[in-house]
Amino acid sequence: MADVFAWSNFFTPLFPKLSLGIAIPAWGQAAPILATTHELDADSAALVLPGVLLSLVVVYIASKIGGELSNKLGFPPVLGELVTGVIVGVSALHLLVFPESGAHSADSAIIQLLQATAGLSPESAEAVFNAQSEVVSVLSELGVIVLLFEIGLESNIRHLMAVGYQATIVACVGVAVPFAGGTAGLMLLFGVPAIPAIFAGAALTATSIGITSKVLSEIGRLSTKEGQIILGAAVIDDVLGIIVLAVVASLAKTGEVDVMNVIYLIVSATVFLLGSILLGRFFHNSFIRVANALKTRGGLLIPALVFAFVMSYLGAVIHLEAILGAFAAGLVLDESDETLELQKLVLPISDMLVPVFFVCVGAKTDIGVLNPAVPTNREGLIMAVFLIVIAIIGKIVTGATVFGQDKINRLAIGVGMIPRGEVGLVFAGIGSASGALSKPLEAAIIMMVIITTFMAPPLLRVVFKDEPVPVTDSDSPALNGHNQSPVLLESEMVKQALSQKPMAEKPEQASS
């Protein structure tokens, strides 16, 4: 998510009224693409594209191998993509490494291959490596934007609003409990100073909406009440996480909290999400008219992507996250009659870009922090055990806050909130860049992120195991995507239901 912050800061001068003095630190020191390529001669600059292509070859092979093996073992394919990402990344093969993880051109097997086969000079290797890594990171960000747009299309505004108050409670508890437990525990048990402890506590509040929603979609639970509560809570949790991040970043930088900064983020997040949903009821008719007027290829897909990218841009430029804008765009277009067709059109783009995101998350994860033979890791490992326990308990208890719902899987709701993923890494990265975190505490946070990210997908499969999939309120059968695309499967099932069963039979369907 570092690129989101970087792009937000880039556009701030264009929208000074939106900034209100907010300065969110950029994570990592990678130079922008154009600035990097200007440092190269023409021959070396031409090798950036081959480097990107080789990176994508690694990504796609790793994602398919990992996804297929994971599927055969009964786990969600996304878990295999994360694991193979770790294998090809900084932790093992060094086929896909990034500057923000501390790697250099000499660490990249792809750059070494370019030097051996394409005549890349050692003097230009670092600049080519930075440019290639930046392009892959941008593709990764596009992948998670497309993923959240797809998830928004699969979701239903009415269902989310029906569980809105439940999702809000789950999200608030899921932020407050881990934050308070982590901060207080580090200060009292380990003697960590206040500001680093607050930073670590803030990292515990994160929830990776990308990972959770992908797993729920793959196992056919996205349309269930549990899935909708988890999804709504994860969205709210993401907004709260951005606010917490801005507060602790300000605290680390100046030693005091910028109240105007916090107020701005709260107001902008609320207005953006509620405004998107309310305006969507009027927008979708205009969208359909435009799409129907276009007769060339992509008449439905291109306007939808334009809308998703505009919403993502607005989310980023007001210092929220681009993925929130993409999710809101998907929710808005879910109101259209052409949603099922649009879901099928988005699917190939998702298949192309989403694996880049998950493999890159794994590739950027350095499991070297788990090595107890390194003296600096030992103190971090002890703190990591504490943080992992708080991270798990702090999210599991959220399920107990769901009330007024009979026969709901509260444990599944808590488990769905566990993974920190890329959001947790952003907290760790900004804390490291600010100088607020010691090496052991930084290692502990990274270890917590690794464990929670990798344990959530198989745990979700376990807590939902052998539980019948209920029919949703919209009479759209819930998904059961073991080996088929959940979007296509839902489309076919809905079409069958609409074509074979008249309206008068619907009460009997529900009772059956």
Please state the overall shape, judged from the principal axes of the Cα atoms: globular
Mean pLDDT reading: 75
Q: What percent of residues adopt helix (DSSP H or I)?
A: over 70%
Distance between the termini: 45 Å
Structural class: mainly alpha
Spans with pLDDT under 50 lasting ≥5 residues? 1-38, 468-512
Largest sheet: none
CATH class of the largest domain: Mainly Alpha
Overall number of strands: 0
Instruction: Tell me the fraction of residues in β-strands, as a range.
Output: under 5%
Q: Give the number of domains.
A: 2
Rg (C-alpha, Å): 23 Å
Number of helices: 23
Order of helices and strands: HHHHHHHHHHHHHHHHHHHHHHH
Instruction: Predict the CATH topology of the largest domain.
Output: Na+/H+ antiporter like fold
CATH architecture of the largest domain: Up-down Bundle
Strand-helix topology:
Elements: H1 2-11, H2 16-19, H3 33-38, H4 42-45, H5 48-72, H6 77-88, H7 109-117, H8 122-154, H9 157-162, H10 164-190, H11 194-203, H12 209-218, H13 225-254, H14 259-293, H15 301-317, H16 322-333, H17 339-363, H18 375-396, H19 410-416, H20 421-434, H21 439-463, H22 486-500, H23 506-511
Helix pairs in contact: 5-6, 5-8, 5-17, 6-17, 8-12, 8-16, 8-17, 10-11, 10-13, 10-18, 11-13, 11-20, 12-13, 12-21, 13-14, 13-19, 13-20, 14-15, 14-16, 15-16, 17-22, 18-21, 19-21, 20-21
